[in-house]
Amino acid sequence: MWDTPQFRLCAELRYPVHAGRTAPRNVMSLPSIMRGMNTRQAISILLYFTFILVLTACSTQTESLPTQTVPPPTVTATVTVTPSPIPPAFTPTPLVCLSQPGEILQDVIAYTNPPQEFLVYLPPCYSELTDLRYPVLYLLHGQTYTQDQWVRLGAPQAADRLIHSGESPPFIMVFPDDRYWYAQPGAGFGTRLILDILPHMDENYRTIPDRDHRSLGGLSRGGGWAVKIGFEFPGLFGSLGLHSPAIFNADAPSMEKLVRAISENDRPRLRLDVGDADRELRSILLFGEILTRNGYIHEFYRYSGDHSEEYWRAHVEEYLRWYTLGWQEETPEQ
Length: 334
What we know:
alpha/beta, 334 residues, 2 domains, eight-stranded mixed β-sheet, 8 strands, Rossmann fold, 9 helices
């Protein structure tokens, strides 16, 4: 392209011609119509036609650059992915009984003399969750009262609250009757508790039948029984609760001997409390001194109050929380 006659002619027209350069050869052989014109006129006409020819040549000979074909834009469809619904986690239907109160049953051992009656508190869902076994708390009532004293003081309601809130594992409570306290020596109540009530409960109810999951407590005369039975049979109960205990006069002289006879590893957890106006305050303080003097680790609480149901009712839930704490702690190796 760069060496064609048309390109050279175009270049000549676009750039100045050097002086003295002769016209192209084909321009001098124009037709005869130019004859008769003077030289100046002929040259003018010649230049006009030459200019027209060059313009035509430059216009027709210019190469067109190839046009790049741009493909049409690709239409990309927007796909909306709707996630598959995640199946809900399997949640078993909660048992209705978990929010309901426990059950209180009346039971009796007919072959003893007299027949041994007692009340049993079964925790919520005891009948529905038949594979579970439970710790047991034995609570003894005071003198002149009967098996329903702890029930009237609110022990079942306190147990329900602790279990429903998750503060305590579910547990069973037993309220033995000692209405024959006036019969010497109490119509053998202590013997019936050890030889009859405990075996009956372990055989007929879903208890955890070991020391660490069995506790004994009592108020007033029931506290005196708890001291006597708990110290004489330390291998049966993991915790002893003594609430305003009326220690038996016959046991008082030998109390220090009983404490010393229990090895440190076999000593049950022990809690002792009393009101500052309790008629048994002096003997209870002496009992506390015996425990301290012999290195028996225990908890002692002295509250405002007297020897009455009003005092015990005010502390029932606190008592139960202490008992259940023993079941939640790891049992030390012995």
